[in-house]
Amino acid sequence: SRFLRALGKVLGTPAKGPGPCIVCTWGKEGSFALETGASKLTHQPAILQQKAVDSVGAGDTFIASYLHARLSGASTQASLHCGAAVAGRKVGQVGFTNLRSALPDELR
């Protein structure tokens, strides 16, 4: 997290809008986002499955779900949660079928 805070200082404050947000995924530790304009660090614990079946593509699934939520107007915390929910579902199954059902209702 010290790295993320230092990076936020380098990037500075955005002119308008929600501003840049740096997102790091750390597997079963969850994910972190640094909103550089606000110097705000947000953590989302991973949503773990009882059994990890197939982790291939889980990181990409997280990022895609996070971006979907963010571009739909969700907050940073809600977007991290969305990414964790869909990536968690991905790890608990083989393949990518029916991952949409893990999205929060307001983002389907």
Give me a quick take on this structure.
The protein is an alpha+beta fold and 108 residues long.
Portion of residues in beta strands equals 5-15%
Mean pLDDT: 88
Structural category: alpha+beta
Q: Main beta sheet: strand number and arrangement? A: 3 strands, antiparallel
Our Rg estimate from Cα atoms comes to 14 Å
Question: Spans of 5+ residues with little confidence (pLDDT < 50)?
Answer: none
Describe the structure.
With 108 residues, the chain is α+β, with helices and mostly antiparallel strands. It contains three helices and three strands. A three-stranded antiparallel sheet has the order 1-2-3, sandwiched between helices. Helix 2 runs antiparallel to helix 3 (76-91). It is globular and about 40 Å long. The protein starts with a helix and ends in a 17-residue tail after the last helix. The model has no long low-confidence stretch (mean pLDDT 88).
